[in-house]
Give the backbone structure.
Amino acid sequence: MEFTEEQIKRYARHIILPEVGGEGQEKLLSSKILLIGAGGLGAPCGYYLGAAGIGTLGIVDFDIVDLSNLQRQIWHGTKDVGRYKVDSAKDSIERINPDVKVITYKDKIDSANIKELIKDYDVIVDATDNFPARYLINDACHFMNKPLVYGSIFRFEGQVTVFLPDKGPCYRCLFSTPPPPGLVPSCQEAGVLGVLPGVIGAIQANEAIKITLGVGNTLNGRLLIYDALDMKFTEMKLRKDKCCPLCGENPNILDLIDYEEFCELYHHE
Amino acid sequence: MDGLFKENDRTDNYAKELNIKGEICPFTFVRSKLALEKIKPGEILRIIVDYEPAIRNVPRSMTDQGHKVLSINKINDTDYEIIVEKGGKK
């Protein structure tokens, strides 16, 4: 492809990088990334993916912008309260970069639609805030062999990693089944520092871009844990579990599972 | 090319020639790098600039990224040529 004059200027700082260059920028412009969740993690992640010139950015979220979201979900404004999050998100990305084709899905993900949602995308980003969604996305990405960038936040602590099917552990290697309902409080009950998803979501964008470019070392096999109070990053080695019910030697999860929602009030984070 | 540099041209066989007069840094390097991506390792790119700092900045960045700067010449009152051989496996 030939860059337009505007693209040469827009992506100059990427093109200069030896690891990106014009060729890498072309890869970004022809890539398709699906962001599941247009909230706290989705906002910084989607903003950076859009600014980077990801060619097609799908965004999935059924939720509506609430005033209490704005403390952390930075791509929605006060005037967006009451709108669908995906519509507000699309406007924000298009304001930054008209090169990006934004496709919105006002769907709640479940076992019936998840495969259809992810099938056309190269990289999937889990920016949700609840266990049923995490397991569903992890399992679907495993079955469909899609790279998955995982992130989660809680109070002052964030976790982020990358799952590459067949090349490393999956989410179930780490936690084979969801915790019982009620054991883990949701963000709504527990609170979250507004900046925290900014840090974790930006790391998710970073990893999604590296996977797309095929450069550097991703977080595959490593769980990065961020403590915003002590301002510390720690890393846990993740190993593929031979007994993993999904990707182990004798798997017993052969199809998608819809777990029950743990909290009736949950919203996508 | 518009013929302006004909008399200064050497007999080298350039794979590509890039006139980016009027362009400033870092876009001089950005455009040069994009032009280099279109040729093969070992082939030669001739870059013409009129922004004086570019004759230091572009060669430095080219060298940093594994290319070989063959020469830098002033070719008339306002313009310079930078001759670069693309690095990498031939």
In short: Chain A touches chain B at residues 3, 8-9, 12-13, 15-16, 18, 21-23 (CB under 8 Å). The CA atoms of residues 3 and 22 of chain A lie 9 Å apart. The first strand of chain A starts at residue 32 and ends at 36. The first helix of chain A runs from residue 5 to 10.
